[in-house]
Amino acid sequence: MTDFSALLQPDRGQPARLLHVVHPDGYDAWFAAQPARARTAAAAARVTGKAGDRALLPGDGAEDWAALLVCDEEPSSPWRIASLGDALPEGSYRLVGEAPLGAAGLGWLLAQHRFTRYRKLEPARPRVLLTGDVGSIDDTVRLAAATARVRDLVDTGASDLGPAELEAEADALAQAHGATVTVTRGDALATGYPMIHAVGQAASRERAPRLIELLWGDPAHPRVALVGKGVCFDSGGLDIKPSAGMRLMKKDMGGAAHALALAGLVMQARLKVRLHVLIPAVENAISGSAFRPGDVLQTRLGLTVENTNTDAEGRLILGDALARAVEDAPDLLIDFATLTGAARVALGPDLPATFVQDETLAAELLGAAETVRDPLWRLPLWGGYEEMLKSDVADLVNAPDGGFAGAITAALFLRRFVPATLPWAHLDTFAWRPTAKPARPRGGEAYGLRAAYALLKARFG
Which Pfam families match (predicted)? Predict the structure, then answer.
């Protein structure tokens, strides 16, 4: 993991090169106020004041230079100076004329993170950003590390990240923060967590399904439950995916990665909560013991589910995990899941489809998302579509015919396992960035993580 703490440091007047970040609307005035050598360098670099223009500006000596970026991002954007974080030479830098650095430090840090498990890259050339906004450093470093944790977990191939490895991640997190971990594995799931067992039973013994539970904090504090979908690889089961659909299914544990990363943030900040993290971890494999279309599954809650599609397995394992979470009467429940292609069709990769059954929670969560520039988009828990979940032989089906409103019907399925009075948010996230942007490479990505953390800090900080 990148040592982000070394890359964002308090500004005590130590030597550093200057960063000029100029809005396009103010570029002409900035340009006119610069010495002739800076104007000449900007012109030579074909800087015209368009967003994205940048140049190195000479000073009095060979080592005395500054950098210019023309940027139309708002000061509150985490990505305002992200394009500089991995583009400048090694060294220390400070922003010119900046008030509090705010979120911009996050992009600076993440631009310098690399996933190196499977390939050797050039040694890191650290670019250190100095800031007078000392109070924001620790939280920014933690957010960068949590985001990198999600990215690294999602980017790891399924051959190296199965249910056992997710359990090891939870164990390491617990050891770091004095939490406890309880795990129910393999055939022990059959009676208490029958849907988790059914989905994972086709995998090899080494990749046996399990429910991982982490518990931390003072029992007297409000109880917060975080649930993360941990399908470490999804073949689709007997309703097998085509090769194109299976290509990225290492990322189907992205919900678990989000939940673990958020738990780490909560524990590092020592928020006043009793934290309960639940990760149903499985591989949806194909073998003679695979569950079948048409099987009627028992659930921890006592409902019966007609399995109409083995590729709609995520909601099954989440159903049992949610049922377990609500048994301890949490004050707040949040789940993260790479759940439906329908959400991606509707909203694309950047906007997690967000379902909230408590209006106060919805307002707080969406407000936090806007504040920290980690966008969410609320979709309705539309009760009129409940009839789509009806079964002729069981209490409900897991995947309605027709394909209408797929993200909504999946959320409605989950709602059957959550009491109507419990504040609950469900984030149907993609956990993957298909196109690179500054500080946001193609690959695993954290969506909604910072929004959820901002909500929890505001409530329990």
Answer: Peptidase_M17, Peptidase_M17_N_1
